[in-house]
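PROTEIN DESIGN WORKSHEET
SECTION A - STRUCTURE
LENGTH: 118
TOKENS:
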């Protein structure tokens, strides 16, 4: 869920690791938020955020990865979690956390998957 740079980076990582066994069904969002994601040819925009219940019924989905910003899309994410729970589908969140500060005061970030299982 999402078409931002975070979603694009994640799908690129999956493409570089076929041994992980992921098959991307497509991107779900109301529009392409990142030109890089739209141009990547790594997946089609298969529907908008309001089409999630229908997509979960019609596509073979084992897991949903959410790359939407929580603060801006809280209600939509809550609805996605509810739909996934209704279908017994696991939900994972992509996020970046600040993990340490260098001696010169720069912050280092590390990407994580956050798990929520329906």
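SECTION B - SEQUENCE
RESIDUE ASSIGNMENT:
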């Amino acid at each position: 869920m999402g078409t931002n740079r975070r979603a694009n980076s994640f799908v690129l990582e999956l493409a570089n690791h076929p041994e992980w066994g992921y098959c991307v069904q497509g991107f779900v969002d109301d529009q392409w938020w990142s030109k890089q994601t739209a141009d990547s040819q790594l997946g089609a925009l298969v529907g908008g955020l309001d089409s999630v219940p229908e997509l979960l019924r019609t596509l073979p989905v084992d897991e949903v990865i959410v790359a939407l910003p929580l603060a801006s899309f809280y209600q939509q994410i809550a609805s996605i979690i509810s739909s996934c729970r209704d279908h017994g589908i696991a939900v994972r969140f992509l996020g970046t956390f600040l993990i340490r500060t260098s001696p010169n005061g720069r912050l280092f970030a590390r990407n994580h998957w956050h798990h929520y299982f329906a």
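SECTION C - NOTES
The two ends are 16 Å apart (CA to CA).
The chain has four helices and five strands.
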